[in-house]
Amino acid sequence: MNKILQIASSRRTWAWPYILFMAMFVVLPLILVGVYAFTDIDGHFTIRNFAKFFSHSEAIQTFLYSVMIAVFNTAICLLIGYPAAYIMAQEDFKTPKVMAMLFILPMWINFLLRTVATVELFNMCGLPLGEGALLFGLCYDYLPFMIYPIYNTLQKMDNSLVEAAYDLGANRWQSFWKVIVPLSMPGVYSGIVMVFMPTVSTFAIAELLTHNNIKLFGSLIQDYITTTDLLNYGAVLSLVLLIIIGLTSFFGDNSEGEEKGGMI
Q: What CATH number is given to the structural domain containing 117?
């Protein structure tokens, strides 16, 4: 009995469910993507799928267009989200929890339902569905992911640093740009990552808000993955996107670490 209790109280024992979950739903799918990417329809090893990607103008153009849309969406979310997070983090702001709840409430509804509701909103207002509607829907869905990392960073910031800037002769604008903005960069970076990367790979929002007239890279991957003869090529597109996102995260983490080291 004591041995059973000892095993149950061990941290390693409670780690096994998470290890199994990661193995089944993270590691195994990634391995399968890699296997399909480097094989043909008959299961033979090949790199022709990668050669096809680099010579396939539609895939390259769709990827570049998706990156452009992701950049625009990230910029819009940052322009809207940073002031909102800054206002919420102020000590004299009376209702930060109410404001936070207003941003959280839409997240309680499935994003597909929110997107369908956005389509109906545009139809009711007589607005055309297209690139503008796509950016509106993307911003609506991903804006909270920009606000909360910045808000958490600003909320935890030591206000005595701002007071020190005032004591040294800085005005409100100078203290904002030279103290608050640099210290909030970790939150800004987290928000950019959480908005930019899902936007590049999204497909359902683009299909609904443009009547499938605009294809993002995620839509292209879906089309190939669901086609049996082109499953391997779809795996290549998925792997390319995964590598690019991984490299972006890796170099971004290094830049953030160097920035922190420089500040120290």
A: 1.10.3720.10
Evaluate whether residue 133 is within a structural domain. yes
Looking at the predicted structure, is the pLDDT value of residue 256 above 70? no
Angle at 192 between CA 190 and CA 84, to 5 degrees: 90
Q: At what angle do helices 131-156 and 185-201 cross, to 10 degrees?
A: 150
| Amino acid found at 138 | L
Tell whether 259 is covered by a domain. Answer: yes
DSSP track, 22-80: HIIIIIHHHHHHHHHHTB-TTS-B-SHHHHHHHH-HHHHHHHHHHHHHHHHHHHHHHHH
What tens digit of pLDDT does each residue of 166-186 get? 888 888 888 888 889 999 999
